[in-house]
Amino acid sequence: MSKAFIIRAVAGCMFLSLAWFAYTQTQAPKLTISKVKEDLYEIEGDGGNVGVLVTNEGVILIDDKFDQDHDAIVAQVKSVTPQPIKYIFTTHHHGDHSGGNAKFLPTAEIISTSMARANIVEHKQPGATDTAPARMVFDHEFSVFLGGKEVRARYMGRGHTNGDAVIYFPDLKVIHTGDLMAGATPLIDYPGGGSVVEWTKTLDEALKLDFDTVIPGHGKVTDKAGLKTYRDNVEKLRTRVSGLIRGGKSQEEVGQVLIAEYNWQPKSLNMQWSLPGMMTELK
After folding, report:
1. Per-domain residue ranges for the chain?
2. Which of 87, 192, 271, 280 is the most exposed place for a label (fewest CB within 10 A)?
3. Cα gap 78→166, rounded to integer Å
């Protein structure tokens, strides 16, 4: 075996090793944590926004992203406190908010609405067959008191799904909306029981709470005025689509308007879930 061959072989192995390292690094979840208010943080990246409340008796999370994000979430929590994660409130059943349940269940208690649990058990989200359901559920309201602090979850009605929970931190005047507020335009999961008609009514109930800060399901932390604007935009979307339907427009024609005016992508979940559902609900 020639010396040149050995050199080339070693170089090739090093190249492949570096390429694999680069690949795995790009695949690793990139999460960031930022402070919202005293002892309350938010983790962003690769899925829904995670709320993190630190107490002297443990940590309470709001949502846990995908299964692949478990280790990164734990690392981010450890960057602000040595306390263990004891409770997780799940805002709804989608995998980018509850996909980490299975890995957290051995050490933490997970809480959701009974509807969100049923949606997981019944596999209402296609492909999310490995999502573990909560062991503790509620129909109207549920509170956890830990380290002298309260986190209160309330079911206020349908919207994004039929089981959305609004999470309220009364002492801090903060709410986590889950995907009742997310992105620039609402995604109505009709297969999961969502409703564009009920969505604004649900947000009207949430707006009655005493809060000044909002952690949305996706996007940057905002305030009560931001949530009110989002609520009004949902109403404008409903009014626009309802008018098109009453005017005799077909589903395809309504879809073209939503692509042009709301930047809905042709093969998006909006087009798969929201559009057919609105055509039925608003007719």
Report:
1. 14-224
2. 280
3. 26
Query: And the tokens for 134?
Result: 């909560």
Residue 119's SS3 state is helix
Pair 116, 161: CB distance under 8 Å: yes
Rounded to an integer, what distance in angstroms lies between the CA atom of residue 196 and that of residue 109?
32
Q: Cα(250)–Cα(237) distance, rounded to whole angstroms?
A: 17
149-155 vs 58-62, strand pairing mode: unpaired
| CA separation, residue 73 to residues 16, 19, 181 (Å) | 29, 26, 22
**Whole-number Å distance between alpha carbons of 274 and 234:** 12
Residue-wise pLDDT tens digits, 24-66: 334 557 999 999 999 999 999 999 999 999 999 999 999 999 9
Cβ neighbours around 71 below 10 Å, total:
12
Task: Write out the two tokens for 88.
Answer: 């997780």
Contact 167, 178 (CB under 8 A): yes
Q: Write out the H or E segment, with its range, that includes residue 271.
A: none
Which of the following CATH numbers is that of domain 14-224: 3.40.50.150, 3.40.50.720, 3.40.50.1000, 3.60.15.10? 3.60.15.10
Query: Do residues 178 and 48 lie in contact, with contact meaning Cβ atoms separated by under 8 Å?
Result: yes
pLDDT band at residue 128, thresholds of 50, 70 and 90? confident
**Residue 247 pLDDT level (bands cut at 50, 70, 90):** very high
What residues contact 224, with CB distance under 8 A and at least 6 apart? 207, 211, 212, 213, 214
